[in-house]
Write a structure and sequence with these properties.
Four copies of one chain form a homotetramer. Chain A is of the alpha+beta class. The first copy, chain A, is built from ten helices and twelve strands. The first copy, chain A, has a four-stranded mixed sheet. A three-stranded antiparallel sheet of chain A has the order 1-4-12, with helices on one face. In chain A, α3 runs parallel beside α5 (97-115) and α3 (39-58) runs antiparallel to α6. The N and C termini of chain A lie far apart (45 Å). At the A-D interface, β3, α8, α9 and β8 of A face β3, α8, α9 and β8 of D.
């Protein structure tokens, strides 16, 4: 079925509200750490993006909903003015949630006005609307991971949604698929149809050495074996920075695992906290909420390594691969760098991706929290090596 | 009019809710700094106190409302078990406000059951109920100062209550009242009737040298003159720790003053943020929200000094003194120490006061946020020298 | 024997060098923590004091040794200009030790020139010279405690001086001496002959309640019993701030005690590191290197309390008291506050004491590292409640 | 001339001492920041490396000089036991410099014994000796950069060596050399003769897009123009992390530049502090002591970008390139990652390079402080993006 742009927009915006629905106004206001944002802030910021990037420049006569929002809900766009400090987003008890919802409605109405005459819109405006929608899809995922982190800070470990249907693990024999060396093309052409972020461009050639890659993700049972083999204590398995963090922060398992004797929910067995609350650890489910350091140490322990983002992209087009999308983001060995010939998008959205191209690692694929239609085999997600609050796991690779 | 104990209790508990009423569920949930607590936490903790100190030991058959609350809402009573870390009180989006209100109601009902047969209660139980009520009155004041701090972190500076009637400044000529040296009695006898905290006991003698003390508080106009005379830049006026803090934190005025060019509310003149929102600075209003360091530096600049808590207590019984109570707490030169012969209260409430007797300064009097009937001339409030978020000002004294 | 002022001065200055002698140029250069200073800095700063406070104002024609030293070796005198930041004193590898010694010699020569005509010197100059000498005596003690701290940071635990003769413990039955309440005079008159610091003035009356005080110090055997009775784990014994520090810093014994299994010098028994190196714990030696928090918790455990500084001063003039001086400084329950009528010294030395009169506790007595003739029963030493690197112990007191 | 292995070894070890010679024992002991190490530590650690990696395993009957040194002078080799914490290296005033020199002599004597019968040594031992020598050469450079940092912390800005002959700038017209796209081979074969680190292996193919690269380094005059064009204030030029650091640390110029009004050496013109002391800024000298962030922002300002490490390696073999070596290390756009097929060296030296392969950027070339014969066009140096205390500059590149 083909949705009109207006329908697409409306569906997207409704979906964000649906994701926020299990959370109270209190849940939606609080910020649990500087890296995470309150739900209410996500709701407002995604609207701010449409307001400042689309409506103000391109809808004649548009009047801003509230002049203070330009400051309150800018994330990091220096070109769009000063902004409220990120670690203090959770102090914004005002505007109340009800007003942020009214703001969304106001922006929606204006956007609908624009989209009702979509044929009159220039390709530039359409591209910015596409960007705004993909931007909101990114925040739909963050809304869930940030909310989960907040709930995990509560000693009572409340569920985001008891009835949530999470993907389940299933038995899948691990197979090593072999890829021969060769010149391949990666990324997206600048003028390719369909949406892509600037960091996926331009399409370009790379020489990739022969490699093997696992046809499935590492699962919780395998990761538990790593823990039980003293994986967190054996310095030789870890990158130096990772070792330091393990010692400093006392890491002994993935972020949301509860040890058998955890005082919050002692069960005599390992459990995992997730969007559906505390559940018994499922050995066949993909391991999640790992840092890059942990993924790398596990791979070392397993006698393998992480794939590069290019190996992942090559393999992603092969039929025998499982769970490339929709379960967990997969850490790669690749640092987040510009592609050869990369030119950032122009205008206010120039800052969208390029200015983060140092000090982060690329993740490929997508997760259970990634919106449908937001996945691509060229998609480049990125987080610092220490980040654990995303749905991040791994897939193994090997030299031949 | 004489209120029964039951009526007193009901009035007290209602008053706390009335103070919380101007705040949304979001406002009541967020914690703006480790020193401050969310309103919702105050609502729950004061109920927790009655539940754990009065109901559980003394109401036969009482069942706790929720077992997790013993952990969540303990403040610092080691004897009553483990507790949620203070800096993370704001992460408790659950239980929701509605449930905390239900908790209050549940506790109230049980307390009412007890108080309906007040004649059957032992002096010990009555004393603990008195303590619980005075404890809640203390939190009534903190609820307001903590809420004000939270609102001050919002760039839009919303008012707690636009219609609030704050005390106003008035013209009052400063006079120096003279007190001759002599032996005086301070504090409260252990067996004195009426309520007092353990830190006010025992009554004891001290020799006080002759001194002079101002009949009124230092006002905003005088403090502005200090600022304009470069008071914050002149090292010789400051205690060494205070000087370090001024430089480190960039202090240039009391906590809630807005300079004429403040970007949040530029007005071309000094303004002050308070419970009623942003108002023009009133030169005759008492200066408030000072640290001890600032109070001390001002006194030095004025060729005077802060009174000791004992000078304040002597003077408090003198007719010509203005605003000893009900405007701002008054920093004294006295560190918070036990009185000679001090013995902490026994049982769980042993930790109420004594364990804080180091590293803090005594403030005397009471403030506009102190509940009626909660003031006494023997009352000893205490905060670290750097604290500025209380309604704290000063009164000058001099040697003769 | 009566020493001339010139002889006194020469002896003092030689003694400082003698104390530095066991330390290499490397030892004398390094700073082990922000609170401690390098020996070389002590050597230079004490000379800087004479240069800036005595020679420059009062020796006609005196030329400063090196203009950069005014900046490098000022400690905290704002009136004498900008200064090198305290935590960075250890980065001053230049000037080298040899040049600092030459600086000392240069200053000594000029001072000797002044002191050879002592009869020509005004009382003001003589008082400043006295102050400079007492100042240097204070630094003689700090030189030792700072050096000991530095050496304690070395895993090999080198001795400051193997042959050092430390005071030894001896059997002394504990007796409680009783003092009746009454008005007493404390401190020193402003015009009293002999040297005293401004913070000991003025002489003034206080009313002291009846009390008991121990005739001897708490010893290591007693403190070990406190440790073995889980003293560091029992929250009810500790001030709230002390408890937080114990948990945060992992304190389990006095600063320089080595547990029987300490990896640096495992001996199967408790040992103590001191100026003479690592020695077996002597149960009868006074316990030392305690924070105020630990002293206070021990007293609580022992069913007693710390004396006030005034109780100590009253008792100090009584014949039956042992070890009031020359072993360890004794923490008192008294915060460091100005005496009634206190007026700081005038001129550059105004900042000597008064600006520290907040947030610290008074210690009375003197220690094994205090120079002879630097002890007085009116002497008020002061450190923050958390300080442990001084030779600080305790004596118990009780209410009656 | 061909030096025997013994002569090479002796020359190397003497050269380290020669580099330390301008520094006093005090200079050699102090640590100015956690990233930098004291000279004495470098002297000891390089000897420790020979002792533990070569002598203990391969010289029969070798006895360690001092058992405590295994702990004190291990840098980061987990497989070789526990180690003294890096930020506390500067607290090791013992062993004294004289003893460290004796340690060096002792190790030298044993190594000479081994090297006198070089024909009897296995290839494995020879490779470890080579590694030890290259390791010491790396520390020769660090010794200088760490010493310079220490001296820069002294307000008097003493010169490391007044008479040092630093390379001088010279007029060199900037030319853009063009390289066509193609498959090229990078790195070193595992079995290539001559020394190389494991991180330079294996030789492998990459496809490199067409690019242009500058034939010379960016010089101080150009960098000054960037500063004067408000380069440090213009957010759009900076990576997000870099912008945050500029604001947080107040960066306004390269690390050792002194603004015309710098209080330490006000000269009315820009100056630069270096190994030879403070000198007037030479506009034609290569800019140095930049972070990656600054290099990247400058390139953006100049309408160019940093080269990848592979572009640099391609260009390095081209005749028209100037100053690829011997002036400043050149930041590249490449994150420090393993080459395809990378296998770390085995045994204790396994930890030499591989465990740092995350969160750092590659620098290529070599600097004025790099020992002769330590440069290679395949050499991969690496530091965090924020590091500024190395002799690090840049060369521009461009897409075509």
């Amino acid at each position: 079925m083909h949705l009109s742009r207006l329908d697409q927009f409306n569906y997207l915006r409704q979906h964000t509200l649906k994701l926020a629905a299990p959370l109270s106004a209190e849940d939606q206001c609080v910020q649990s750490m500087p890296d995470a944002s309150p739900t209410k802030w996500h709701l407002a910021h995604t609207s701010w993006f449409f307001e400042n990037v689309v409506l103000l420049p391109f809808l004649p006569g548009y009047e801003v909903y509230d002049v203070s929002f330009a400051y309150l809900f800018n994330s990091y766009y220096e070109a769009l003015g000063a902004r409220h400090p990120r670690p203090q987003r959770g102090l914004l008890t005002r505007p109340p949630l009800s007003q942020v919802l009214a703001y969304r409605h106001y922006v929606d109405t204006a956007m609908q006005q624009l989209l009702r005459h979509v044929e009159a819109l220039s390709p530039q405006v359409l591209a910015l609307i596409d960007l705004g929608q993909n931007h909101e899809q990114q925040h739909q995922e963050l809304l869930q991971t940030d909310a989960l982190h907040l709930l995990s800070c509560n000693p009572t470990l409340p569920a985001y949604d008891d009835g949530i249907q999470l993907t389940k693990g299933y038995s899948q024999t691990l197979q090593w698929l072999t890829f021969e060396e060769g010149l391949c093309t990666f990324g997206r052409a600048v003028d390719e149809t369909g949406f892509g972020f600037d960091n996926e461009t331009p399409a370009h050639q790379r020489f990739v050495q022969s490699f093997q890659i696992a046809n499935r993700l590492v699962n919780c049972g395998e990761y538990l074996a790593f823990i039980q083999d003293d994986g967190y204590e054996r310095a030789e398995l870890w990158l130096s920075e990772g070792r330091a963090q393990v010692l400093n922060d006392g890491w002994q398992s993935p972020l949301y695992w509860l040890a058998p004797n955890d005082p919050r929910a002692a069960a005599g067995q390992w459990q995992v906290f997730g969007l559906g609350g505390v559940k018994a650890l499922d050995p066949q489910a993909p391991v999640s909420n790992l840092s890059f350091y942990e993924a790398s140490a596990f791979a070392e322990w397993a006698g393998a390594r992480l794939p590069t983002e290019f190996e992942w992209e090559v393999a992603s087009q092969h039929p025998g691969m499982h769970d490339m999308h929709g379960q967990v983001w997969q850490w790669t060995r690749s640092a987040y760098e510009p592609y050869p010939g990369f030119v950032p998008a122009s205008g206010a959205v120039r800052e969208y991706n390029g200015k983060f191209m140092v000090g982060q690692q690329v993740l490929r694929g997508s997760s259970l929290a990634t919106p449908v239609h937001h996945s691509r085999h060229t998609y480049r997600n990125f987080f610092p090596a220490s980040a654990r609050w995303q749905f991040s796991g791994l897939r193994l690779a090997k030299d031949i």
